[in-house]
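Handout, section B. The chain below has 448 residues.
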Amino acid sequence: MNLRPSPPTPGLFEDPAQETPLAEQLRPRHIDEVIGQAHLLGPGMPLRVAFDSHRLHSMILWGPPGVGKTTLARLMADAFAADFIALSAVLSGVKEIREAVARAELTRAHSSRQTLLFVDEVHRFNKSQQDAFLPHVESGLFVFVGATTENPSFEVNRALLSRAAVYVLKSLTAEELQALLERALEDPRAPELAGLVLDLQASEALSASADGDARKLLNNLELAARAARAAGVSRIDLALLGQALAAGVRRFDKGGDHFYDQISALHKSVRGSHPDAALYWLCRMLDGGADPRYLARRIVRMAWEDIGLADPRGLQIANEAALTYERLGSPEGELALGQAVLYLACAPKSNAGYVAYNRARAFISGDTSREVPPHLRNAPTQLMQDLGHGKAYRYAHDEPEAYAAGVSYLPEGLAEPGWYQPSPRGLEARIAEKLAHLRQLDDDAKAP
């Protein structure tokens, strides 16, 4: 029983010599050939220590596509002479899990070799499927290595997570992608690249098109190489590269960690009064395919949470930007969202209203149901009037400064909580002065 993925059968019009993708041909053969992940593979770093000490352990490799998760699992199996079993959670089920367990038991019975079970896209297995690995990880039947692009905290069972170290892999930097590109062009395992030359602009554009994904870089290089051969040239320039590559889509997982990380960065940039950063994250999300209506809703939320009454115009502009997008759609309506973000980032900041609201909600949730004081009750009928509803109510507009000094509007026995504390910024500075004046009128009215 061989659970390794079988190579695809060449299509009717495919060249059998080209059936293996370039990214597979150039997969690193040793840990020292891996480009990137220096925080894990550099001297003294966790995975380097594991390789050097020959101590294999179960782990979850978490990171975006094309950063080396599968490569590291294969290198571990080779370095430790372990039997390598690969499963894909997209294509496998309970049957394949049982076959993997049977193969690991057979390996242990007939040799002293360890078994490394690699599960790609492990987050796609449901809870019961993930639970099926637990007793075998616990008994040491195999070393479990899971790969995921999703946050393990949410997508991997806690029991399995507690038995595996989590390592976060990062997207490759522009420098690392350039190093990979240069190595690929010189690698004898890829004869189809022999003699090809990339000019500087094409090289930089190729790296940018990969967006941190090594596999995508090599796939795009392969497309460019085919276009060069078809054109009968050995030099790849920007024009040829543009013909070879379709319009790229940047990595953006709608609903995943990258999505929420970016909306968090946008919100915090607005709160931090950094208009350029706020505009950067907004455009990154729009470029990645985020729903502009979702962004409009979040911008309105930012206005209420972080600007509030310090600048009520921010609230108006956020709402008007959302309405403008509804009327114009993309791309014209996106300009309104951009300008709303700029205004909010530049506006005076206050979370006083947000804090006051949360304090009030927290108090109410733990308090009793206090009665409405008689002078504040509605009295639409004679009976209610006879019961004293509304009695002694003072109509504020008939009072000096339209304020009934000394009147309490809270339930009896509830002291002034002071939840709302206006900030000294923007309009709220004037609101604070007004409230202080009214409190003084109250104190004067209550004085003997």
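Note. Residues 371-446 form a domain with the post-AAA+ oligomerization domain-like fold (CATH 1.10.3710). Compare this with the example in section A.
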